[in-house]
């Protein structure tokens, strides 16, 4: 299955935006696929070039290898483990709470990490891959596994990267929610005052 066979018609836009944005989607149907190291490097490099307050670049990306995949999988909540077992890569995004240059709190650390997440996601789509961000992770266990100082570092999210599979690989319950959805109308999120 590829993006051309997915019905994105529910994603209505009458504005001429690049299809990359409209076809960004967080599926749960993934197939076993080895991501070439050069492709992973480009995806992470895209995240590296994201904007951040004071150019602090507070995000830290931790991704699984073949050797650590099962450990990373176990750090997801049970509901996510069921479908994530078939992805190519599981990762965690962590953000540094304080600025390196002065040690003061960086109240924009999560916002800046979100910019890096979107850059990572869009580059993955340009590589023909999909991502799925997850709040359903065991944050304390992730912090422990990664040996993080939680006073300094905050585990923000988990994510997967992989190649889309046929929806028949999912359970009936998962299939029911496995459709690209629409967004709020632009007028609901944007006001010119």
Automatic annotation (TrEMBL):
- Where are the residues of the annotated region Disordered? 172-193
Per UniProt, the keywords (alphabetical) are: Oxidoreductase
Molecular function via GO: oxidoreductase activity
Keyword Zinc appears in the UniProt entry: no
Report domain Nitroreductase positions.
23-64, 80-163
The record, for CDD domains, names: TdsD-like
Q: Which domain of life is it from?
A: Bacteria
Q: Where is the composition biased (Basic and acidic residues)?
A: 172-187
Similarity comment text for this entry: Belongs to the nitroreductase family.
What is this protein's name? Nitroreductase
Q: Which organism is it from?
A: Arenicella xantha
